[in-house]
Design a protein that fits this description.
The complex is a heterodimer. Chain A is 19% helix and 27% strand. By secondary structure, chain A is α/β, with parallel strands linked by helices. A seven-stranded mixed β-sheet of chain A has the order 5-4-1-6-11-8-12, sandwiched between helices. A six-stranded parallel β-sheet of chain A has the order 14-17-20-23-26-29, with no helix packed on it. Chain A has a five-stranded parallel β-sheet with strand order 15-18-21-24-27, with no helix packed on it. The termini of chain A are far apart. Chain B is of the alpha/beta class. Chain B is built from nine helices and 28 strands. Chain B has helices at 38-48, 63-69, 104-110, 112-117, 136-146, 202-214, 220-227, 248-260, 262-268, and strands spanning 5-10, 31-32, 36-37, 53-57, 83-87, 122-127, 130-131, 150-156, 168-173, 176-182, 192-201, 233-237, 243-244, 286-288, 293-295, 297-299, 304-305, 308-310, 313-314, 319-320, 325-327, 330-331, 336-337, 342-344, 346-348, 353-354, 359-361, 368-370. In chain B, the strands form six sheets. In chain B, strands 1, 4, 5, 6, 8, 9, 10, 11 and 12 form a nine-stranded mixed β-sheet that branches. In chain B, strands 14-17-20-23-26 form a five-stranded parallel β-sheet, with no helix packed on it. Chain B is globular, with a radius of gyration of 21 Å. Classes of the chains: A alpha/beta, B alpha/beta. Strand 16 (297-299) of chain A pairs antiparallel with strand 14 of chain B.
């Protein structure tokens, strides 16, 4: 059946996110909670629908159960479509060989037939580990105008951090003449955001070449992009400015959550013109009791607060009993904090119970001293936590 | 397991009792408890009892209701078989000229063939102005066990019960109904008030409709009052919390009661095995600023609170400015309260704007209502 799309997105959501430790023990990184009502994957998926992209392949591999359950049929992002929509693409068995996804490029390579179904002119490659709001259609416009084989979204980072990123060295017209993956001595501070738009024939051509190369690590940044450059293809940087944060570490995840609160938050999710969609549930409304003191915080539906909450983010269904204290912390779904318990500068994963009188974390600690409590833990007063 | 019963919800027979709030919506679509509309409680009660063949009878003014129900997906009622349907009004040979029904029976007469074709063994008929979280499985099981003609859900009330609008009153002995009358004429030592949830066999209902048709009767209530002695009517006495929203003052008091009465919240909203479903919106978490002071209040998502909120109910997207004080008030979705404004015992409809420094006060016996979209 005819089902052509101008541009489809391929979202790499299979990463383990090992630097999030306990938070990703049972869950792929894109399914980690963020900002009270969201999962990390809500950001790229919302960006897609807000940019007019209605066909998204989500490549899963590591611990996909929570992620699959969360995505469902894509209705949350208006991606439950008769033609296109959201498709989950796990590794599969072929008639010649079967394999796990070896690298980012190999994951897309194994799904070339999915791309061909839609006969798109362009393919947008995304990853599921960043918090940002971006209109990809503007990037696509630039891609078309320059006639590039590939456009890489870049963002200005502090030069002292540049060696953590893939750095694009560009000419005055934003054409890329050199791409350095995590350079020791960066010449520039234009970092790749891991967002690529390819013209489809070029993508397929270079993925097939990459696959044929024996010693390739099958990675876009390390192998495919350098190959395009070496072969003289036109590559352009698309300069993005706005909030963008890699939440791959405990401290960056905590920091990014804290960016949502304060007098003038660096990141506001109340902006209705470019909404971030998330799966909303039918929990009861929030209830704040007589003894509640809730300030400078984000609270979600189903929470019941009788204690003190300050500078914190609470996901749905969290209970804070009388005399309990929560400060500078991120509390995920259905956590129960019993009478007199105290939580300071922590990330507490869902379904955890903090028993009466227990203490988690250190008061006034900074981003390098975040306490993390794994899903479903029970914390007793005698447990030394933090 | 699916239950072999159909639900029939009447959306607006009581519009006149809540006239101000129903100017642009039916009773079933009246917002209640931060994020719900009255019909959500009917739908959730049915769905939680595995009843998924549901018809909502609309009459007029049902735009907001239709929008709220949508495909029924939010209640898991977007089904190939059954699901929820909004029955918009129409006239048939039975109802004569193009005239809208004003009683249950008039509507039921029109729908006789439709009800037969629902193909369910039992029907549960309900109004939407009694807000409760009831286990209808239990009611249906009782009905089957006692082999009653009709089982009516009732609530025990005091001897001095009175109502601004007439309610159906019942006396029963060991569950068997011994008296039925309207509240205006009723005297009894252990009165129960009908919560207008009626369970019967589909055949029995069809029989009643035929009888009404044959004798040109148009009130099911009157038929019951006249004939209950010849019928086997049982009552199921519900003892949990009920918000009976039969006047604006009732509506206001019930709303505020939810902020003061923990038992009411537990009975209505916090039953883990019986959640109340509603149309979910995509909303951000609520922001409590450094100056927020909130106590004894129920708050929906997507609010921004910079002032003080006491014993109040805030719907989605309400903004409370710095220095503002909200007390004993109910603010519908999208209400914006300016800086240093003060509201006491006020009900604001959707998208009301209260400008900076404005002070408005009613009291618990005389709350004030501000119409949708007004700027004060």
């Amino acid at each position: 059946m005819y089902c052509k799309k101008e541009c489809i997105a391929m979202l790499l959501a299979g990463g383990q996110g090992s630097r999030l430790y306990d938070l990703t023990k049972m869950t792929a990184k894109p399914a980690v909670s963020f900002g009270g009502k969201y999962k990390i994957i809500d950001f790229p998926l919302s960006n897609c629908i807000n940019s007019g992209i209605d066909t998204v392949g989500v490549l899963t591999q590591y611990q996909p159960l929570a992620l699959n359950e969360y995505m469902g049929n894509g209705a949350t992002w208006d991606l439950d479509r008769t033609r296109g929509g959201l498709s989950v693409l796990p590794p599969y068995q072929g008639n010649q060989k079967s394999d796990w996804y070896k690298g980012t490029a190999n994951a897309i390579y194994q799904n070339i037939n999915f791309i061909r179904q839609y006969n798109p002119d362009y393919v947008l490659i995304l990853s599921g580990d960043h918090i940002y709001r971006m209109d990809y259609s503007k990037m696509l416009e630039q891609h078309k105008a320059t006639g590039a084989a590939c456009t890489i979204a870049t963002i200005t980072v502090p030069i002292e951090e540049a060696s953590r990123f893939g750095i694009c060295n560009t000419g005055a017209d934003n054409s890329i003449y050199e791409f350095e993956e995590k350079p020791k001595k960066p010449k520039n501070n234009q970092a790749s955001m891991g967002i690529y738009i390819f013209s489809t024939p070029k993508l397929i051509e270079y993925l097939e070449r990459d696959e044929a190369r024996e010693n390739s690590s099958n990675d876009f940044g390390k192998d495919v992009i350098p190959d395009l450059l070496a072969s003289g293809e036109k590559l352009f940087a698309y300069r993005f400015s706005g909030y963008w944060k890699d939440v791959g570490t405990i401290s960056s995840l905590w920091e990014s959550n804290m960016d949502l609160i304060g007098e003038n938050p660096t990141l506001s999710l109340s902006d209705r013109s470019f909404r971030v969609y998330s799966r909303n549930t039918a929990r009861a409304p929030q209830y704040l009791g007589k003894t509640s003191k809730t300030v400078n915080s984000l609270i979600s539906e189903g929470c019941r607060i009788y204690g003190e909450v300050e500078n914190s983010i609470l996901s749905g269904g969290v209970v804070v009993e009388e005399g309990a204290e929560v400060r500078d912390s991120v509390i995920m779904e259905d956590v129960v904090i019993r009478k007199g318990a105290k939580i300071y500068t922590s990330i507490v994963d869902s379904d955890t119970i903090v028993e009466a009188g227990a203490t988690v974390g250190h008061k006034g600690a900074d981003k390098n001293d975040i306490t993390v409590i794994g899903k479903g833990s029970v914390i007793r007063p005698a447990d030394p936590i933090g | 397991m699916a239950t072999n019963a159909a639900g029939i919800i009447f959306s607006n027979l009581n519009d006149n009792t809540l006239s101000r709030m129903t100017a642009e919506r039916t009773v079933a679509a009246i917002p209640f408890a931060c994020r719900y509309r009255l019909v959500d409680f009917c739908l959730s009660n049915l769905v939680n009892a595995d009843i998924s063949n549901i018809s909502i009878i609309a009459n007029y003014n049902y735009r907001a209701l239709a929008e709220h129900i949508g495909s029924g997906k939010d209640w898991d009622l977007a089904r190939r078989n059954g699901g929820v349907r909004l029955i918009s009004p129409y006239s048939t040979a039975r109802s004569g000229a193009a005239r809208l029904y004003s009683t249950h029976m008039e509507a039921l007469k029109n729908m006789r063939e439709y009800i037969r074709d629902l193909g369910e063994e039992y029907v549960i008929i309900m109004d939407s102005d009694n807000v409760l979280n009831i286990d209808l499985h239990e009611v249906l099981n009782l009905h089957k066990k006692t082999d009653a003609n009709i089982t009516m859900v009732t609530m025990p009330v005091g001897k001095d019960f009175s109502s601004k609008h007439p309610r159906l009153m019942i006396s029963s002995v060991a569950g068997k109904v011994t008296d039925i009358a309207l509240s205006s004429t009723y005297k009894a030592t252990h009165p129960e008030v009908s919560l207008t949830i009626w369970v019967m066999r589909t055949d029995y209902l069809l029989g009643l409709i035929d009888e009404a048709d044959a004798y040109n009767l148009d009130s099911l209530t009157n038929m019951l009052i006249k004939n209950f002695r010849h019928m086997n009517i049982r009552s199921y006495c519900y003892t949990g919390y009920v918000a009976s929203v039969s006047s604006f003052l009732d509506y206001y008091r019930c709303s505020i009661e939810l902020t003061t009465n923990e038992k009411a919240r537990e009975s209505l909203l916090w039953k883990e095995s019986a959640p109340i479903f509603t149309r979910v919106h995509n909303s951000a978490p609520t922001v409590y600023s450094a100056n927020a002071k909130v106590s004894d209040s129920m708050i929906a998502d997507d609010c921004v609170i910079e002032g003080e909120v006491i014993n109040s109910v805030l719907f989605r997207g309400v903004k409370v400015g710095r220095g503002a004080v909200i007390r004993d008030s109910v603010l519908f979705a999208g209400t914006t309260v300016g800086k240093n404004a003060s509201l006491t015992s006020i009900v604001t409809d959707e998208d009301v704007v209260v400008s900076d420094g404005t002070s408005l006060a009613g009291n618990l016996n005389m709350p004030f209502y501000i119409q949708r979209g007004r700027k004060v």
